[in-house]
Amino acid sequence: MASNQEVDATIGLDSSRTIEGSVFIGPDGVKKVLRRRPPLLEINSLNVIFGENQVLRDITLKIRRGETVAIIGESGCGKTVLLKTMIGLVAPTSGEVLFKGENLATLSDKELTEARSHYGFVFQMAALFDSMTIAENVSFPLRQHHKEMKRREVSERVERLLEEVGLNPSVVWNKTPSEISGGMRKRVGFARALAMDPEIMLYDEPTTGLDPIMSDVVNELMINARDRHHVAGVLVTHDMKSAVKVANRLVMLYPHALLKPDEPQMIFDGTADEIWRCEDKRVAQFIRGEAGDRIRDMSMDD
What we know:
Blueprint: E1 5-7, E2 23-25, E3 31-34, E4 41-50, E5 53-63, E6 68-72, H1 79-86, E7 94-99, E8 102-103, H2 109-116, E9 119-122, H3 134-145, H4 151-164, H5 169-172, H6 182-194, E10 200-204, H7 212-228, E11 232-236, H8 240-246, E12 249-253, E13 266-270, H9 272-276, H10 281-288, H11 294-301
Parallel strand pairs: 1-3, 6-11, 6-12, 9-10, 10-11
Antiparallel strand pairs: 2-3, 4-5, 4-7, 7-8, 12-13
Helix pairs in contact: 3-4, 3-6, 4-6, 6-7
């Protein structure tokens, strides 16, 4: 029987592009385990307070290379704020966010811009530039960060990315965002996020406002980004179908205001199979879409 061996992924495997702990069969037929490496993104004891309102409390989370993590939880629990701390758009009140070992809060503006060039961000409403054509929107990060690229090279990459997200370049190239559908705008935003060959993709409610078929198209695009481009991903969503289909791990946050003083805000961290077996009533109610006692709780808050 072949024995397990702990090896560096440089032996026949791209160490920067594979989930740590992965098991694979080497050229010699021996089962091997990818050696543990530092996480791509690491959040330690994170607290975020706006005025007198604490949004995030003592969040500790690691995102490994090559994995997709879904952040779930009801509205107001801090999911999007957490996502913004991961890219340095929101500064921690205390704690730290490390990208490839570098604390984002200690970086200069130039260093933070460089770090962000390794991220792709898919916004909830696509956030395209209305005055630009679709081709200009997708090429925008390339023109900002790779001024040395020739116009032909930029055009070729934009064409490839549009085709990858299921858009015909000859049809949408010179259109503006207002001239295409909401689902098409989402895919343009996805193409733009991939333009810089990111190491990590951040998705903020990417299926909001889409019909079930188009939602699943976006799910497939997220899976493709992980499997074809080998990027890590963080997905903020209320859509359990997306979370279960796309993510390797699910993390559930609970609103800080509803927690007891000694309760952690992260009430679940595990796989899709594990979340359906979770005995925490709050987790079970959320993933099954059950109100439970929340109507009574909300009436007491009024």
